[in-house]
Task: structure prediction
Amino acid sequence: MSNNSKIHEGIAKALFASAWADYQEEFETGAIGPGAEIMDIMPDHIDPAAYATAGKILAEFQDLNGGWSASHLQDSVLSKIKDPEEFGHYIGMQAMGHGVGLHDYDIDYKVPYHEFGWLELDPDNYPDLSDEHDAEEEFDSPSP
Result:
């Protein structure tokens, strides 16, 4: 796998992990226990929407940084971040505004902002359960 592909994969995994975790919390599925590491418990199958958005983020990242390419991953960067996939992970996290990113490693690149949440995931795999969830909350609420 090329460095570019590994960076793309890292961005996609970060996007999917965030959206998947939001979905689990939104609908209280019980899939995330206390202290769980999302990257360790999320499904292996990354939603295609995460890959598509990761491609857009990577293209914008490259444009914002003067035509940057994966061949620019120098030892100075890889001495701070273990591999190209992790580099992509931090691009993805920073792109979503999660408060962690390349800047935490004193790596000074411009990163585009992108929102990515569970509503972007495949609705066949991640259906909107809002109506069911709202009905349960209304039923469980004490009467005045």
User: Anything to note?
Assistant: The longest helix spans residues 3-26. The chain has one domain: 3-140. The CA atoms of residues 119 and 129 lie 11 Å apart.
